[in-house]
Automatic annotation (TrEMBL):
Domain VOC: 4-129, 145-258
PROSITE patterns linked to this entry: VOC
TM ranges: none
Organism field: Leisingera methylohalidivorans DSM 14336
Alphabetized Pfam families for the sequence: Glyoxalase
Protein name: Glyoxalase
Length: 507
């Protein structure tokens, strides 16, 4: 029975930088891209050798622009890949040329190691050791398989005893390190009692998975571990069957079968070519394909992302028609929330989702409020000025056509757009306000004679009266306001994209 690491999973906050590092710099193959099996709105990327052979795989859950975690006890802290022993000098030069943070080479546990940091700060070691793979990558210098993971533990003895279940035995000790060996790789336990506990987030590892010979072994492991912390039911991940459990010191372990593997739904020559949506999310597959962040593979044409005052994300359809929808989410939303709705309005539009910068009890907003219906006027003004600057930089940086831009906001985002048009007339020529309301205490003088506005108000919306005030204020400023009252509350309804499409067609 083959034992060892099946895969290791971490979290990244920037999908493009992640692809550039692992598929570009390291030269691993992106063998699969899927919507998450636990959370369909989370992109999951799998890298490995040419076939994604168990033991070569590192995977990433994409928390785009998500909060950073904290590396600490109860976590994998490092991953090491085997590279041809004679290639260490080449890798050092390659890292220096590419601007990848690197230290070494140095000797660790009897092996020559280069220590790198990926764009999220994750430590990736390259170890000069001959570990061949059955599915080698095109580049002869590329990593062949996972050599090891390092686990920070407050109780190395307990962690080592638990790891024996997965085919590991103690091989050596060196200071705070205990090395455990399977028949294919090693685990390095670092005794770190008194160190801080790890915290989940981007730039950290989520779990390490070990190889199970078959489904029967996974089910038997579940019976054997029935009293252990964090044990889950057996999960069908399509490419493998697995379960999760926490070892006594807190690190999350997975036990996963080799079969059926990544060629179960893509031919070997096309692995990773297509974004695949799990079967249980098939009913919302179109929405998820728009919501999940896009990326370019190494060498492909890409849209360079700029460091601008607001977090933002583009979605580019296969056949764009030149129109651009700028999307402003509601309270508690994010930059991707309105992309499915906008894609239903116009499947050929380029979508630019933007994230508000104000937070309230952990939820994203566009401006602060003092009470549910009393808003911080200074914050509205300052955020409006920042957003206008952002729009100008977006147009300049990405070469957008201002005349083709339509601004769409929902709830808090619609409120913000309603204020923005009057605080900075001339920036927005076409606006769609879904469940919007008046938030300005003093209506500024503004000439909106060239502005077209669609306002959709729910007949059961408890905040509908604020929509009436906003309609009056915009009309008094000269905007051409079209108001539709639909059978809905404050939430969006299936009728919203239909009314918006009709309005846009008749402009």
């Amino acid at each position: 029975m083959t034992t060892g690491i099946h895969h290791v999973t971490a979290l990244t906050r920037n999908v493009q930088r992640n692809v550039d590092f692992y598929a570009g710099f390291l030269g691993l193959r992106l063998v699969k891209q899927t919507g998450g099996y636990e959370d369909g709105e989370q992109l999951h990327l799998f890298y490995g050798d040419n076939l994604g052979t168990p033991g070569s795989i590192i995977t990433f859950l994409v928390w785009q622009e998500g909060a950073s975690g904290r590396v600490g006890l109860g976590q994998v802290s490092e991953i090491a890949f085997a590279v041809p022993p004679a290639s260490i000098g080449d890798w050092l030069q390659r890292a220096i040329t590419a601007g990848v943070p690197v230290s070494g080479p140095e000797r660790e546990l009897g092996e020559t190691v280069l220590r790198l940091r990926d764009p999220d700060g994750i430590i990736v070691k390259l170890v000069a050791v001959d570990l061949p793979t059955a599915a080698p990558l095109e580049n002869p210098l590329a990593p062949t398989r996972i050599r090891s993971v390092t686990i920070l533990t407050g109780d190395a003895r307990a962690t080592a005893a638990f790891a024996e279940r997965f085919g590991y035995r103690e091989a050596m000790r060196d200071g705070p390190y205990t090395r455990l060996a399977s028949d294919t790789d090693v685990i390095d336990l670092r005794q770190s009692a008194g160190f801080v506990t790890g915290g989940p987030g981007t730039g950290t590892f989520d779990h390490v998975a070990f190889r199970a010979p078959d489904a029967k072994a996974v089910r038997q492991m579940r019976l054997d571990l029935k009293d252990h912390n964090g044990l889950t039911n057996v999960h069908d991940r399509k490419y493998f069957l697995s379960l999760y459990v926490r070892e006594p010191a807190g690190t999350l372990f997975e036990y996963a079968t080799d079969a059926p593997g990544f060629t179960v739904d893509e031919a070997a020559e096309h692995l990773g070519d297509t974004l695949l949506i799990p079967a249980h999310d098939a009913s919302r597959a179109l929405d998820l394909r728009v919501t999940l962040p896009q990326f370019a593979r190494p060498g492909e044409e890409r849209r360079p992302m700029r460091d601008l005052p607001f977090v933002h994300r583009f979605y580019t359809p296969e056949d764009p028609d030149g129109s651009v929808y700028v999307l402003l989410h509601g309270t508690g939303g994010n930059e991707s929330d309105l992309m499915p709705l906008a894609a239903r309005i116009n499947p050929r539009a380029t979508l630019l989702g933007v994230r508000g910068r104000s937070t309230e009890e952990g939820t994203q907003r566009w401006f602060r409020r003092f009470e549910p219906e009393r808003f911080d006027q200074d914050d509205i003004n300052s955020e409006a000025a920042a957003f206008i600057f952002f729009v100008g930089e977006v147009i300049k940086s990405y070469g957008l056509d201002h005349a083709q831009m339509t601004f769409l906001g929902y709830s808090n985002g619609a409120n913000f757009l309603g204020a923005l048009m009057r605080l900075h007339p001339g920036t927005i020529q076409r606006a769609i306000l879904l469940r919007g309301g008046e938030v300005l205490e003093k209506t500024p003088s503004a000439d909106l004679g060239s502005v077209q506005v669609l306002q959709l108000t729910g007949t059961q919306d408890p905040f509908g009266r604020h929509g009436n005030r906003l309609e009056t204020a915009l009309a008094e400023s000269g905007a051409a306001v079209t108001v539709k009252h639909i059978e809905a509350g404050h939430d969006l309804s299936p009728e919203d994209p239909l009314f918006v499409s009709e309005w846009l067609t008749n402009l």
